[in-house]
Amino acid sequence: MTCNGAEPLLPPSRRAKPRCIFGYLPIWSECVPLNSDTGSVDSVRVTANVLAGCIIGIRQTLTGIVSATLVYTGSEYPEITDMFPFGISMMWYSTMAGSAFYAVFGRLQYNTNATQEVCAILYGAMAQNAAVTLRKVGRADQIQPTILALIVSSTMLTGICSVLLGKLGVGKLMLRFPTPVTSGFLGTIGFFLVRTALQVSSGVQFVNFYPVDFGAFFSMHSLAPVICLMVMVALIRNGPSAIAKAFPNSKLLKLSGLFCQLCPLGLFYIVVCLGGFSMGTLSKNGWTYPTQASRSFASLWTTYDLRDADVTVLLSNFPSMLMLVMMSVLCTMTGVLGITGKFRMGPDGDPAPMETVDFDAELTTVGFASIFAALSNGVVTFHRLGSSIQLRMDGGTHRLAVLTSSCFVGTFFFTSLPLGHYIPKFFLGGLFMGSGVSFLESAFLSYRSLPPQKFMGYRLPSPQYWVTVACILVATFSSPFHGIGAGLVLSLVIFLWDSAQSSPVASMSTGSHTVSRTFRPFWELEALCQHGHRILLFYLQGQLFFGSGQTLASSLVEAIEQDLLGGAVSERMSEYCILSFGKVTSIDASAAEQLRMAVKRVSEHGCKVIFCRMNSQVFDALSTLKVVTAPDVDLRQLLGLQTKGPSDVVGEDSNRLTDASEVGDASPPTLSRTLSCWGEGQPFKSSIYEDYDAFDDVTDALDYTGDRLLEKYLYQSSLKGYMLEYRNACSTGARLANEAFEAMNLLPEGFLTQIQPFCAIQMGLASGQRLAEDDAFCFVFQGAIAVVNELSDQKQTSQGVSIKGFQGRRQKRLRKRYPPGSIVGKHEFVLNSWQRLCDTGTTTSRVVSSKFGHMTEVWTLTRSSWKSLGKDLSLVLQDLSLRQLAEEKQHSLMSDN
C-alpha cells in the first residue's frame, strides 16, 4: 500500500506466515526493508524505520511516566506515592519487553505494544483499595508489597485468560461487548485522567469531581501550574490543525503533533534558564517531583518481596482483576480493528498483505507477553492504537522500527535516569488530560451516532446514550468497576425491555392463504380455501425468554379465543395452530413453561398446536416439558432421537417419544428403517391417521393439518369417483387407475393406452431413488415424486450460517412434491426446447418420495418419443401441459415459501 508516497503497492501474496505457540514467527522480509529488485537491504528505508522508531520511543517513554503517575500519584497515602520512581521503572520495563515480544511473535510488523492509561487507572484503583484496607487494620508496612502483588497477579490472570480465549477461539466474542458500556468506560477513564491531571498539577487532592480544599486550589501557588496545564492542552488539541492550515504543503506535518506535545516542555526550560531557577527550587515549590536516589534497574526485582503481600487483600480484589481482564481483551480487539482498519493492506515485506488478521492469534500473543511480564514484575501491555498508526505513517513499516522504539525505552530503564525530577508536573498532566478530554468528548457526543428517541413530540437521545452517561456518573462517585457494572446492568435492562416490546411473532397466516408445497388438485385447493381458516400459522423469530415468551403465549391464546368470540363455534373455531421456529435461535425455561400453559389452554378449546422447524436446543426445551411428545419420523431422524426400537416405525405408537429408562439396552433404529423421504427403503404409512405434534418443516405440518381438514370436511361428502380414487391412492399408496388419471386431467378416454407404447414404464421405485431422465415428461400413477434442489458444492457462509432454503433434510430444498395424477418435468421440457433453462448454481433432482406409498410407478416420455407421437396425441399433451402449468402456478402462489 502507498502511504504518503513511502510504500510501494505490492501484489498480495498467498504465502502463509509461519506460526508458533506464541503467535507467528518473523521472516526476514518483515524485519528490515529490502530492495524489491535486488533483495538487498534498503539503507534509506532502514534509516526511516530507525528514526520513526525513535520518535515513537519518545512518546512511549513519556507514556510510561504518565501511566506510573496514574497508578502512584493520585493517592493521599505516602506508601503509594513513594512507589512512583519504582512505578516508572516498571512501566518502562513493561513497554520495552512488550514491544520486543510483539516484534518477534506478532502478526502486524508495524505494531507497538505499550502500557495503557486504561489499565493504569484500574491498577491505581486497586492500589487505593489495598491501602485503605491495610491501614484500617494497622498493617501499613504491607501496602507496597501488596500493591506489587496485586499488579503482578492481575497481569498474570489477564495473560492466562487472554491465551485461553485466543486458543479456544472465543476472543472475537469480546467484540460483542455493549458499545455504550465501552464508550462509558472510556468516558470514565477520561474523567479520571482529567481529575488526576488537576491533582498532579495543583498538588491538591480531589474528592469525586471537586478539590478537598478550594482555598488551596485557587491560590496562586496552585493555579499557576493549572494555567500552564490548560494552555498545554489547548496547544495539543488545536496546534496541529493550526500548523496544517499555516503550512499545508510542509513535509514536517507528520511531526506537528509531537512538536505541540514537546513545545510546552521546551518553553518551560527556556523560562527556567532565563529566570535562573534551580531544579531543587522547582521541586520544593511543587513544579516537579522530588529527586530520588539513583537506583539500579535491578531494583525492579529487589525492592519488594511478594511474600510480604497480604493474601486476603489479593483475594478481595479478584473481581477488580476480572474487570482488568475484560477491558484488556476488549481493548486488544478494538486496537486490532482500529490499526488494520486504517490501512487497506499490509506494508512492504508482509508475506500475505491482504490476509484478514486473526483476532484470536493477536489475543494469544498479547496474553503470552502479559504472562512473561507478570513473571518479571511487569504490567499488561497491548496494541497501542495511536502509536502504531503514527509509526507506519512516519515510515516505520518493519519490525526494525518496533525494536528501535523498544531499545529507546530500554535505554532509560537500564540507565535509571530520574526523568520524573526533570519533567514538570503540568507537562505530565497535560499529556493525559489531552487524552482524557478526547475520551470525554467522544463519550458525551456519542448520541450523534445513535438513533434518537421520540418522547411527547420531542427528539431525545437514545436510551443507549444514557447508559454511557450513567457509567461515567456512577464511576465519578464510586469507582471505574462500579461504573462498568452499572452500565452492564442498564444494558441488560434495555435489552430485556426492547426484547419484551418487540413481538416474537414475525408474521402469521391461515391455511386459506398458505398451503404446503405438495401439489394438490383443484377440488382440494377449493376446500382448503373454504376451510383453511381453521389452520393458523405463526412464524416466530428471535430468542424466546421470559418476556417474549409471555408475549407469544398471549398472542397464541388471544388468536384462538378471538375466533371463538367472532361467531358460531362451528364456523369460526381454529382447529390447528402451527408454530414455525425457523428464525428462533433459542428458548429458555420460562418461555417454554409459558408456552406449555398456552398450549394446554388452547387445547381445551379444541385447537391442536403443531411445532415445526425447531433446532435441537428448542426441541430439547419443549420436549423436556412434554410440550412436544409426538415428533414425526423425519424430525426424529434429523435430531437423532432414540425410539422404542427398530420396529417402532411401523408400530402403533411409532410417533411417541420415550425416555432412556424405557429403552434399556435396545439399539437405535437402523438407518434403512428410519430414513426420511431423502433416504431409502422407509415403509409407507399415511400421516392422516397418526397423531403427530412436531414436524421438520412447514410443508409437512401443512400437509398433516390440511389432510385432516380435507378428511373431515371434504371427503365425507358425495364426490365424483375419480376424486375418491385419487384420495385412496394418496392415503393407501394404491395405484391410480388410468381412467381416474384421465378424468382428473380432462383427457380423452383411452388416451393413456395410446401413449403407453411411447413411454418407459418404471414400477416399484424405492423411496429416495432418483429419476435418471431430466428432460422428459414423467406421469405419476403411484406414489409421489419430489423435485428438490441441491447445492453443487455444499458451501456455507461464514460462521456456519446455512444457505437460504437449504436447512433441514440433508441440505436439500424441496421445490414441489407431485402426488398421483401429476406430470413432472413440464418446465424443463418446455424451456429446454428453446434453450432457456437457466443454471441457478443448484442441481435440480427428481427423487421418489416416501410420503404417498410403498412403491412408485412412473411413465416417462422422452423428447425423442415425443417427436414420434402423432399430431393428435401431441396436441392433447400440449393442452394437458398448459392446464397443469396453470394449475401449478395457482398452487405456487398459495404455497409456503
TrEMBL record:
Coiled coil: none
Residue stretches spanning the membrane: 50-72, 84-105, 147-166, 173-194, 214-236, 257-277, 321-339, 400-420, 426-445, 465-497
Annotated Pfam families: STAS, Sulfate_transp
Broad class of the protein's primary localization: membrane
Highest rank taxon of the organism: Eukaryota
PROSITE patterns xref list: STAS
Entry's localization field: Membrane
Keywords noted in UniProt: Membrane, Transmembrane, Transmembrane helix
Record's bilayer topology term: Multi-pass membrane protein
Domain STAS positions: 535-622
Residue span of region Disordered: 646-668
Family matches, as InterPro entries: Membrane-Transporter-like, SLC26A/SulP_dom, STAS_dom, STAS_dom_sf
Record-given protein name: Uncharacterized vacuolar membrane protein YGR125W
UniProt source species: Durusdinium trenchii
